[in-house]
Each structure stands twice: as C-alpha cells, then as structure tokens.
C-alpha cells in the first residue's frame, strides 16, 4: 500500500505554539478547542488508581472531578465518578447543561488562574477506557467496503448481499475485549484453512488487518419493546469515538459461515480515549448518499435531519498515511443503525457501543482496511507495526472538531505450547 | 407437532407430599435435593426491592443472605450481595467451600428449627436474573440441529458447513436482553422477505420459534492473551442454566447473510432463575459422540475427562410435551467451546454466559426447535402460547439433579405506528 501524500497536518499534531503559553492558549486551528470538548477518564502518576473524568482542551486535560465552586458545572456529582457512565445515563438535557458550563469555564479568561492548576499535559496522564461497555454492535454500512470485501470473500457470488440496501447489516461483537487507545494488540492464534489446505492449520494469524470505524456511545437507555425512532437518535446517543476493529482475515474467512465473525475479531477492538459529544458535529451534518431502493418507514430518513457526518479519517501505519476514509460516504447513518437495532423491541443500556463498520470511500486512497487497500493480497500487519486513526470534522467559524486518536502496536502472538505446535 | 407421550413426570412437578411436612422433608426423587442446590436471587413481597441470594431446596428457597451463626458458611459476605457475581468471581475453591457448607446446613436435622423461618415457598417469592451478564455467546454445537437447519435455510448447499466439524461455531448475542424465566416475550416486529416477495415486508414475525439450550455461566475471569485450556474449564465455569434462545425465523432468514443472526434473536433470551453448580453433574458426565475428523490439539478431548453431560431436557408448549432433547448427544462440549472462545486471546469476565446452541437429538421427538419439529412448515408460536423447558440429570445414588425451568409466554407484537403500517 503506497503511502498517501499528506497535504494537510494531522489533527493530532497541534500546530506550533510557544512553550511559554498556558493550557488555554490554543494555536489557531487546534482541533481540540472550545467547540470540541470531548470527555475522557484519566489518572496521574501520583495517584494511578484514582480515575477521574476530564475534558480535553488542546494538549491538556482539564480535571472535571472537583472543579472550584466558581466554575462548578451543574450535575457536578456526575463528573466525580470514575467512568462516564453516570453522565451518559443522565440524558440529553443534562449533557447540554454540563457541556455549556464546561465551555464557559474554559473560555472565560477570568477563570484561568483557578483552572490552570487542574490542567495536566496529555503527555503526563494515563488515559483509560472512558466508559463501561454494555453491548457492542458492529455494522457494515459502507457500500464501498461491503462491495470490495464481498468480491474478495465471495468471488463467485454477488458482491453486495441481497439484503444490503434494505437494512443496515450488523452483528454483536465482544464487549469484554474493547480496549483503550495505546493498548498493545497481540496477534491472535487461531484456525485457518485456505483453499489449498487439506486440513485446518493452527497458529498466529498471517492476515492481521485493521478496520477504520466510527463508534457511537449510547447514553440514555431505552425500554424493552420500545423502538428508538430516527428522530429520537439524539435523545439516546451521547457521543462519538474512533474505533479500530482489528480483524484476523484468515481466521474470519474460515469461521464466518454461517453465523458471522467471532474469533477473527473478538481478540481486541480499540477505541479512542475521548468521547466527543454529538452536539459538536452540528455543523458537520451531511446528507447520506442517495438511496437506490425505497426504504421501509422506520429507516426512511428522507425527511429527517441530515444523518451523515463529514468526518475525515486518516489512517497511518508506522507514521505513514495509507488512507483517508471519508465518513460522509457511508450509505447507512448512525440514526438508521439505532432505529434498526431496536425495531424488534431490543432495549438499549447506558454504555452500549455501536460502530459504523469499516469506512471506505470510492477512491483507492479512501479504503478503511488493508484487505481493500491491497486487494486481498497483503501485505497485512507485521509484528511491531503501529496503526493510528485520527479524524476531524468541520466546526463553526472554520474551526476543526477533532476526534481523539486510536492507536495500537502489534505484538507477536503468544508462543504455542508443545501440544499446539 | 404432535405431543410426545409423557412416560415420566416432569422434574418441576414434585411428587406428592403431605402439606404438613416442612421445607426440608423432600419426597423421594425430588430433583432439588441435597445434591442439586442451585443458587438464585429472589425477593419477597414484604421487601420487593431487596434482592437476596438463596438456594433452592425442594419447593422452597432458603435465604442465604444472613444465615444464623451456627450454620453460617465461609465467605458469607459473598452471599449478602444482590447478585451472584461476587460469588462467581471468587473462584472454584470458594465455590466448593460454600457448597459444602450449604449442603451441611440443609442436611443436618439439628439446624432445621433455625433454618425453617428462612425458607420461603417458591410460590411466594419473585425470582430475578441471578447474575449480571457480561458477554453472551451462543454456539451451534448439535450436529443434528445444524444439519436439519442447514437443509431448511440452505436447501441448495451442503447441510453442514465445511468448518462445522473442525471448530465449534459460535457468535456473540445481545447480553442486554437476557431475561429471567417468567418474563413475557413480546413478538418482535421486523423485516422479512420471502422468495415470492418483490420487496421486504415489515411487521410482526410470523415464524416465532424457540431454541432449547443449555447455558454455562463463567465465574472466574481469565486474562487477556491467556487461552483457557480444556482442563481449566472447571476453574472458570461456575454452573449451568437452561436457556431459551427465542428466534424469529423470518427476520433471521432475511438478515443473517453474511454476518450472522442479529434482530432475529436479540429481542429476548430467557434463562432459568437457578444456576446449578457444575459439581452437581459429576455423576452425569458422558463421552461426547465419536469425532469424525481429527481435532486440533486445543480442541482434542480424547484424553480429557468426559466433556458431555447427560441432561435430559423436556420442551412443553401450553403444557404439552413436544420434545425431549438429549444434551448428551451434542458434538461439541462446553469445555471445547470455552477453549475455542479464548484461543485467540479473548479474555473472560465474571458473568460471561455461553450457550450450547439448540439441543437436538437424532430422533424426531428429540428436536429442540419448532423449525425442526415442523420441518420448516410451522405452525410456529401463536400469541398466548407458553413454552417451558425443564431438565434433569442423573445424580449420585439414583438421585436426580434438576435444572430450574425456563418459561415464557408470547405476547402480541406492539402495534405499528401509522407510518409503519
């Protein structure tokens, strides 16, 4: 996969600024300014077991767990928890009140003296999985990805399954192996069987891949038997993260018929440490692609607010940009995914996470996994490779809304015991 | 489906006994005697929000949450919790110590006076989901079921997928919609598209089915990147439950290619209220069927302790027995499923639940779902139908080891809004 030329700076690389400036002096164009304000959970070296909620501002984390009275937001008790879950559960009205208060705190010069001691350089903190994941669902919502993968996995069938344009295909993944950015990813062992193999082989995956995805975090739960309609999306979804759905293509190809992916994906799924509130993307809303078939009413978003988000993702491997998948190209929107996921009466819990599926655009340098970037031929990931996803969306007045990066380095597979070799 | 003649009493219907007898006077053959002792969580009408751990003995629940000092078991603090999770997490040594102490308490006549006030008739209590479910995985481990269903779903392909005898096929299900026995099951709405339909239809499932399964509850967690070998099964799995994996066959058939079942199953999965410790089945261990292909070392149980369990399941619809699926006929054992599920390094959490897949034996009256019992033709479940699964296994000295029943009544689908009709 040839590296993509990089005409624009990565949003994670903040523009130059003088080291003498304080945490609130952001450079022009910093994607973590007052219109972004993502939440995360961090700890500091002096209290490594004390997990605290913080908000990212530039290259600093502002500790929200115990703000001084003058800038204390409403619902401060929710911010004193060791995870985002209580805040997630509180619902949209609370989310908006807290966000408004946090924005006021970071933008009012009069508060800077009080807040500066509560700001920690990102480099000095440990970031943790910011919420307890309830159920994890992964969709398959990019037409380009589904078509490309269909051609590789099912060369003798039609690339796009018959149902693909009638419903957003999804499946449940493993919630217990979702890890935060920075966690090393150990190459999985497993069964594989290629067309030339007489019997299945066992060993380290030889086709370890990434999937560049966008995740949506459910805050407010829903009741069993009460579907969440398209226009109730914002009442339930708190925010957005980046997600890398690591995939062992050889394990997946052998196991996935007929009940879907299992061990090919369950070894690790990485998410960014920062959850960016949905409201941050108001200016980035886009119309999804034109629909090729009429949709059933519960999925028909022709009259709804634009359901796409103009998120521009960048995939780097060992620091080289290999792709720039455009999230705006997704056929199925997150609101449609949520409506579909609940139309059978399935309830939502606080902490449910659902992901878009691999984001691939129509161009060869917009593909979200190595399987597509290399047309199934590889090379796939080598031990030691480090993969990083970043993304940003347009915000108000030319601002950029950054998503926290999700990065992971591949470690070698565990040695096989003597009886496995 | 013609009702199966019932030569033996259901284990849930305890044999006659005099109403004058106390809770510890069990009739001969009661499947909830001193060799069974399953754990559950209950509340009483006078304190409906106070969830307490109890053990079932005959038709009573013995409250374990605050036993008198004379019979207090070790680790009593674990039994004071509102769910089984702390006990589950404590590990096998603790499980055995607690079980031995509880058995001593219920079998020692000297304790009866003290314990009788702590016994509640089953009919007087509310039973709750006994543990917090972490991840839920469903397998597909009956060769008879997989063959029968393959013929119906894929009439033009081979009935058994190529991978089926090389690995226990499994997939993740929705943990958040697992409900305890007795919870009504609302017929799901959803998309379906038959071969004769020009476009997908939307509405209540017309092919609502059951799947009679056995569930295994993980107690002790495992570390990421450390597979659980076959012989470590008992160190991690706490106990066994019955499970009904309700399935909307029309929704499932339309959605499941290529990523597996999703809304066809995620609306509800019912489990029994009682988790029977694995040790209760020591006398019921059986050899699984002969393997048709050599297994990779991590799955090869030829030299392991017998991995099957001679559990005899009974399925009733509206009180009529429709099937008697034999769990001993399963091709893949629970230990193999656990070894497979973790061989890629995926970790286990306390509360993980994995189920066997539909249990179907070789005979026409041993099939575990209506799809098979009616050869795909129906009738399927009608609104108002009540389905109950019961099961027992042989115990020591001719005793029966009962599993708690799992029952549910079908309620009509929610009305569709005007824009959905």
UniProtKB/TrEMBL annotation, chains A, B:
Pfam families: FAA_hydrolase, FAA_hydrolase_N. The keyword Hydrolase applies. Residues 137-410 form the Fumarylacetoacetase-like C-terminal domain. InterPro entries: Fumarylacetoacetase (IPR005959), Fumarylacetoacetase-like_C (IPR011234), Fumarylacetoacetase_C_sf (IPR036663), Fumarylacetoacetase_N (IPR015377), Fumarylacetoacetase_N_sf (IPR036462). This is fumarylacetoacetase. Keywords: Calcium, Hydrolase, Magnesium, Metal-binding, Phenylalanine catabolism, Tyrosine catabolism. The active site is at residue 145. Residues 1-30 are annotated as: Disordered. Gene3D superfamilies: Fumarylacetoacetase, N-terminal domain, Fumarylacetoacetase-like, C-terminal domain. GO terms for molecular function: fumarylacetoacetase activity; metal ion binding. Ca(2+) binds at residues 138, 211, 213, 245.
């Amino acid at each position: 996969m040839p590296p993509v030329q990089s005409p624009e700076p990565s949003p994670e690389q903040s523009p130059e600024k003088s080291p003498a400036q304080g945490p609130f002096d952001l450079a022009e164009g910093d994607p973590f300014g007052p219109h972004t304000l993502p939440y995360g959970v961090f700890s500091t070296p002096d209290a490594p077991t004390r997990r605290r909620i913080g908000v990212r501002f530039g290259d600093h984390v502002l500790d929200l767990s115990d703000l001084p009275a003058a800038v204390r937001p409403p619902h401060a008790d929710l911010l004193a928890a060791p995870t985002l879950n209580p805040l997630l559960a509180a619902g949209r009205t609370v989310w908006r009140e807290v966000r408004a208060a946090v924005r006021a705190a970071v933008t009012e010069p009069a508060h800077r003296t009080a807040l500066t001691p509560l700001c920690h350089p990102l480099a000095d903190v440990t970031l943790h999985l910011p919420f307890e994941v309830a159920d994890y669902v992964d969709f398959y919502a990019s037409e380009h990805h589904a078509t490309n993968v269909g051609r590789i996995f099912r060369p003798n069938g039609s690339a796009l399954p018959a149902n693909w344009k009638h419903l957003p295909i999804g499946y449940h993944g493993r919630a217990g192996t979702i890890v935060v950015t920075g966690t090393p990813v150990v190459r999985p062992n497993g069964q594989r069987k290629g067309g030339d193999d007489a019997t299945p082989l066992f060993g380290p995956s030889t086709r370890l891949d990434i999937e560049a995805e966008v995740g949506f975090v459910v805050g407010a739960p829903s009741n069993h038997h009460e579907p969440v309609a398209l226009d109730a999306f914002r009442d339930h979804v708190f925010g957005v993260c980046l997600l890398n759905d690591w995939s062992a293509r050889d394990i997946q190809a052998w196991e996935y018929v007929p009940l879907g992916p299992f061990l090919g994906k369950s070894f690790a799924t990485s998410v960014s440490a920062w959850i960016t509130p949905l409201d941050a993307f108001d200016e980035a809303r886009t119309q999804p692609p034109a629909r090729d078939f009429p949709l059933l009413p519960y999925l028909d978003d022709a009259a709804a607010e634009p359901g796409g988000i103009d998120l521009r993702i960048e995939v780097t491997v060992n620091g080289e940009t290999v792709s720039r998948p455009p999230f705006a190209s997704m056929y199925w929107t997150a609101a449609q995914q949520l409506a579909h996921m609940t139309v059978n009466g399935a309830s939502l819990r606080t902490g449910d996470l659902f992901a878009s599926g691999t984001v691939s655009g129509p161009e060869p340098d917009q593909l979200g996994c190595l399987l597509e970037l290399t047309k199934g031929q590889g090379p796939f990931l080598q031990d030691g490779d480090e993969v990083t996803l970043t993304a940003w969306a347009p915000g108000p007045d030319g601002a950029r809304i950054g998503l926290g990066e999700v990065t992971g380095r591949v470690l070698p597979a565990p040695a096989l015991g003597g009886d496995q070799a």
